[in-house]
Amino acid sequence: MPEIATATVATVTGLLSDIAATGADPLRGGYTRPVYSTAELDLREWFIEQATKRGLSVETDRNGAIWAWWDIPGGDRSNSLITGSHLDSVPGGGHFDGPLGVASALVAVDMLKARITTPTRPLAVVVFSEEEGSRFGVACLGSRLMTGAIDADKARNLSDPEGNTFADIARANGLDPRFLGKDEQLLGQIGAFVELHVEQGRGLIDLNRPIAVASSILGHGRWRLSINGQGNHAGTTLMADRRDPMIAASRTVVAIRDTARQQPHARATVGRLQPVPGGTNVIASRVDFWLDVRHPDDAITASLVESIHTQAQLIAAEEGCTIELTEESLSPTVHFDPGLQQQLQHALPDAPMLDTGAGHDAGVLSPLVPTAMLFVRNPSGISHSPEEHVLDEDAETGAQTLADALAALMT
Ligand code: HGY
Ligand code: MN
Ligand code: MN
């Protein structure tokens, strides 16, 4: 594939339009691109093609992340500068959550290549896998594996809703499950990681600015609650004779909302609830539902979950049911590297600092390597929804800002 002329600079909106049909979800709207689904695999192919066109050398690591390297002469990769994001999505997600960071990184490489022919520091664009945890339940699974933030055995045994284990799916996609896990060599090469991402709230709308530098990520976790009752016939079972887990779950969901409302800065969500067996004329025997709790103070997050669990146990008992709570994913509050933040603020004097309630791979890498994030304005202030949006000019400003930030970090 011929290298593109160094003066050729793509646009973010152009690159995103290439993938605008991939994984479009006619039922939910937006995009549904779970890791290793046909849609996400198509996006991987798109990324590899774009990276190869730019003369980057593309490698897939033992955990399934794709790395597109712009190497220095001699190929030493120590103290490398990494940017990128993810391509998987939540069900019915927006067009920008993940792909904006990947497309912006490719355009930033174009911009840097139009300025310099040889990088003074090795640079790579990375695509992490399963950032959303939508298929295997653990947020940022790919970056957690690379950093050792998740036990490799636990990861291998994660299963998707169809019962496929992560080991099976990884193997089916060219990985050797035996080698999943912390990648010391790769981690040792990373000098800094800068991720650009669509902002997923209203911060930049209210600040009336197109770009921000991230200050922190709210701690967050996910817990599965399973309430067991007595499955039965909807017509022959008198109301007094029921032990209906759907009632216990419904009461618990309201209790979760009420509990979070009483704690300033807390967020608690139940976005996924699955009755078993799930028939219209069937009293469920079990209801599984997932709790997402977030707060700046990790101790408060823990106390909120404890309070919710206690309330749920009482509610279940009143409804003649039993309940189990299982932690599936937990990410502490992250404060990004002050040194890197200062460098970015120096390079981007117009960009305000902004915290976020959304988790990112940059947050997972943060304890081990200097990481920073750039946010691009989302005029809808909505995310994890088809309504997520970025104006064309802000998207291009984002790529230009990322290129400026990388250039500043290259010296
Ligand atoms: O859930 C999150 O905060 C992120 O979008 N994965
Ligand atoms: Mn997301
Ligand atoms: Mn994301």
Can you characterise this structure?
The structure is a single chain. The chain is built from 13 helices and 15 strands. The protein is of the alpha/beta class and 411 residues long. The strands form 3 sheets. Strands 1, 2, 3, 4, 5, 6, 13, 14 and 15 form a 9-stranded mixed sheet that branches. It has a 4-stranded antiparallel sheet with strand order 9-11-7-12, covered by helices on one side. Helix 1 (12-18) crosses helix 3 and helix 9 (245-261) packs antiparallel against helix 10 (298-318). Bound molecules: (2S)-amino(hydroxy)ethanoic acid and manganese (II) ion (2 copies).
The end-to-end distance, rounded to whole angstroms, is 30 Å
Radius of gyration: 22 Å
CATH architecture of the largest domain: 3-Layer(aba) Sandwich
Number of helices: 13
Q: Which distinct ligands sit in these coordinates?
A: (2S)-amino(hydroxy)ethanoic acid, manganese (II) ion
| Overall geometry | globular
Largest sheet: 9 strands, mixed
Give me the CATH fold name of the largest domain: Aminopeptidase
**Element pattern in H and E:** HHEEEHEHHHHEHEEEHEEEHEEHEHEH
Sheet-strand content, in percent, reads 15-25%
How is the secondary structure organized here?
Elements: H1 12-18, H2 38-53, E1 57-60, E2 66-70, E3 80-86, H3 99-115, E4 123-128, H4 141-147, H5 152-157, H6 166-172, H7 184-189, E5 190-198, H8 203-207, E6 211-217, E7 219-228, E8 232-233, H9 245-261, E9 267-276, E10 282-283, E11 286-295, H10 298-318, E12 322-331, E13 334-335, H11 338-347, E14 353-356, H12 361-365, E15 371-376, H13 392-410
Parallel strand pairs: 3-4, 3-5, 5-15, 6-14
Antiparallel strand pairs: 1-2, 2-4, 6-13, 6-15, 7-11, 7-12, 8-10, 9-11
(2S)-amino(hydroxy)ethanoic acid binds next to loops.
